[in-house]
Write a structure and sequence with these properties.
The structure is a single chain. The protein is α+β, with helices and mostly antiparallel strands and 508 residues long. It has helices at residues 61-70, 117-127, 137-140, 167-171, 232-240, 252-258, 289-298, 301-308, 337-346, 365-375, 393-399, 413-420, 435-445, 450-467, and strands at residues 39-44, 72-73, 75-77, 83-85, 88-93, 99-104, 149-152, 155-159, 177-178, 195-201, 205-210, 223-228, 246-247, 265-279, 313-315, 353-358, 382-387, 403-409, 470-482, 486-487, 506-507. The strands form six sheets. Strands 1, 10, 11, 12, 13, 14, 15, 18 and 19 form a nine-stranded mixed sheet that branches. Keywords: Signal.
């Protein structure tokens, strides 16, 4: 359930429209005037022979970036992680939010066929096939597909199984790409995206070319090549050596080393991944609210950000989605050792040893657990760090233990709540289950009043901040490196529209 440094998007991603100028440091920036032409080579970690070009099966970062280049969704997530229209020109619900009418843009697939309502319905039917496992299935499951219809070639009417004001979030779900009706063979993929397919060598490279008929305007680049370099050091060296112009997923250490040099420009995407500890509120010892508050007060968040993220991040406030749509901007919680000690005594937990489960399943988790255990010294509570199997970590900690490391990528706050904090949520690692909280969520998603929804989400967040089980201590930057002559790299959070988006990039 994480964004991790080995290239997987994990299970939490939902993976924006923000300024296109990169937020670089160090090297001289590319010309601010966009230019056309050239081939950009982008280095990503890969998956060898297991890599796919089927956008509904994409799981690796490189697969997600390639899917984005070749295919479109009806919507995608903006810089504040709110849904933005893409192939959908607009969406309109009926009065009770059970039917949504989608008007499609005038767009064409790479083979010249128009993108039609029938293609949309066929794409979603493929994703929802009960005999197949596609990532977007859970997000689209609220669609009543047999009762949905194509009104005409550019109008789709979706029937839903229940009222749902946040249906555009589902349209923007990770992997919910629109493909031609009947498409099953992706050896020669055909999409409607900014780049069209040229060639594929699994585990090595994919070459794409400009789509001059792209609905949002032809890309500036002539060609885009994704090349595989699994180790971060290999991606860095390929960039420094001139074998590539873009290197995805660099470490804070690399960023610091080259921040003041002239051989690469560092681009940071803030608020891309939350770092946290998860307390299970349904069992001892964290069924005690005082003890949960004590842990909140033991955390020295600035120290965690500096030591674990090497300063490449922002302090968290125990809530998901800093800077995202509907985020509750509450007073920042600070370390207070004296109050934490008082609450530990009040909870009868003095002398208690608590195991903190962690693993290398996501970068920085073991280091964060070690730092936090050190911060708890002298409080009367001992935190014992236990490192588990990285391959089974997320499944293990979903069920077992009482305190664990947690990490998540960007998604709408509504999706975070739906997936992790309702009584029936499938990835509810904190075991938070409150009927009144569930009712507040249902109130939010069943009203068309935007301000009423925001108020409901903020009330839910106030409850979570006071009583919840997530100690969200920081938000990590996502870091990429590029040659100084590359312009147009976005600073959008990872997993959003403008992350790893190349149709607006140019070579100076």
């Amino acid at each position: 359930m994480s964004l991790n440094r080995r290239g997987f998007l994990g299970l939490t991603s939902g993976l924006a429209v923000v300024t296109l100028a990169g937020c670089g440091s160090g090297a001289t920036s590319a010309s601010s005037t966009p230019r056309t032409g050239g081939r950009l080579r982008a280095a990503f970690a890969g998956g060898g022979a297991k890599e796919v070009l089927d956008p509904h099966l994409a799981n690796l970062f490189v697969e997600a970036a390639r899917s984005k280049a070749m295919f479109d969704k009806l919507a995608d997530l903006g810089g504040d992680v709110s849904p933005q229209p893409r192939l959908a020109e607009k969406w309109e619900p009926n009065a009770d939010l059970t039917r949504w009418r989608i008007t499609l843009r005038k767009a064409v697939f790479h083979d010249g066929r128009p993108v039609r309502a029938q293609d949309v319905l066929a794409s979603y039917a493929r994703i929802l096939d009960p005999n197949r496992a596609f990532r977007a299935k859970s997000s689209l499951a609220l669609i009543d597909l047999p009762n949905s219809r194509a009104v005409d070639d550019r109008t789709v009417e979706f029937a839903l199984k229940r009222p749902f004001a946040e249906f555009p979030n589902a349209l923007a779900a990770f992997g919910a790409y629109i493909v031609p009706e009947g498409a099953e063979d992706y050896t020669l993929p055909v999409g409607s995206g900014a780049f069209s397919f040229v060639s594929f060598e699994p585990g090595r490279s994919v070459l794409l070319k400009r789509n001059p008929e792209y609905w949002e305007g032809a890309p500036l680049l002539d060609e885009l090549e994704f090349v595989i370099a699994n180790e971060e050091s290999a991606r860095t060296n390929a960039l420094l050596g001139g074998q590539v112009e873009y290197a995805h997923d660099l470490t804070p250490t690399t960023a610091r080393s080259h921040a003041s040099g002239d051989r690469m420009t560092i681009h940071r995407a803030p608020n891309s991944a939350v770092q946290a500890f998860a307390m299970k509120v349904d069992r001892a010892p964290f069924d005690n609210r005082d003890l949960r508050e004590a842990l909140f007060l033991l955390a020295d968040r600035p120290q965690l950000v500096e030591s674990v993220l090497a300063g490449s991040g922002q302090v968290g406030n125990d809530l998901f989605g800093k800077g995202y749509q509907h985020y509750a901007d509450l007073p920042q919680r600070e370390r207070d050792l004296d109050k934490a000690k008082f609450l530990i005594r009040k909870a009868g937990a003095e002398g208690l040893v608590v195991k903190l489960d962690t693993s290398t399943a996501a970068a920085g988790m073991v280091e964060a657990a070690t730092v936090f255990a050190d911060q708890a010294k002298g409080s009367g509570l001992t935190i014992e760090v236990v490192q588990g199997n990285k391959d089974s970590y997320w499944a293990d900690t979903l069920k077992n233990g009482s305190l664990s490391s947690f990490r998540s990528g960007a998604m709408p706050i509504e999706t975070h709540i739906a997936q992790r904090l309702l009584s029936g949520s499938g990835t509810n690692v904190t075991k938070w289950a409150r009927p009144e909280f569930d009712a507040l969520y249902e109130k939010a998603v069943s009203t068309s009043d935007q301000s009423a929804r925001t108020q409901a989400y903020q009330e839910m967040q106030r409850v979570l901040h006071t009583e919840g089980g997530y100690l969200m201590w920081g938000f990590a930057d996502w870091i990429v490196g590029a040659k100084p002559n590359v312009g147009g790299i976005s600073t959008a959070p990872a997993n959003t529209l403008d992350w790893a988006r190349f149709d607006k990039v140019w070579l100076g």
